[in-house]
């Protein structure tokens, strides 16, 4: 579950589904080529690959989701404080790949255990308790998140506002500074929050 970021899927092939849990209840959204599906912060989500599902994942806020803006649906005893949570979720960067994969699968299994309990719970108190625990877990990182947001998404929106202001005044001189950029990943197949990802440093 993301606390401040929306997430979207552009499905380019295969078949699958995204299972979601919100205060409105449990829902399954089928995914097939051509589907664009997205959800807002607070949506517990589980992606299911049914037949070679291929998606491009779009996330809001300049990489904030991989910088910690997500809390896995672990059982409550692992959500008590940041250290306990980290002890079962952090993948050791220097460990051999086999150990990284073991840790990733173990945390996935714990998250599924907690997810099933939330999905099967009667009423909204279990979900509210998870929301409280998630908000408390991320609180120490909020200053870091705000800085990332200000450098990225907020700065981009502010620049657009300035461009609109200039166009209203008949000033299009900023268009002369147009530029093209491209970047290749600096790392491939790194374990991320929800699976493997390629890392782009400058984006």
Structural account:
The protein is built from 4 helices and 6 strands; from the N terminus they run ββββααααββ. With about 200 residues, the chain is α+β, with helices and mostly antiparallel strands.
End-to-end Cα distance, whole Å, is 23 Å
Shape: globular
List the total number of helices.
Answer: 4
Number of strands: 6
Structural class: alpha+beta
User: Percent of residues in beta strands?
Assistant: 25-35%
The string of secondary-structure elements, in order, is EEEEHHHHEE
Q: Any low-confidence stretches, pLDDT <50, length ≥5?
A: none
Largest sheet: 4 strands, antiparallel
Tell me roughly what share of residues is in helical segments: 25-40%
Oligomer: single chain
What's the pLDDT, averaged over the residues? Answer: 92
Nearest-angstrom radius of gyration?
19 Å
Q: Short description, anyone?
A:
With 203 residues, the chain is of the alpha+beta class. 36% of the residues lie in helices and 26% in strands.
Layout: helices, strands, pairs:
Elements: E1 7-22, E2 25-32, E3 36-39, E4 44-59, H1 82-89, H2 97-120, H3 125-138, H4 142-168, E5 187-191, E6 196-199
Antiparallel strand pairs: 1-2, 1-3, 1-4, 5-6
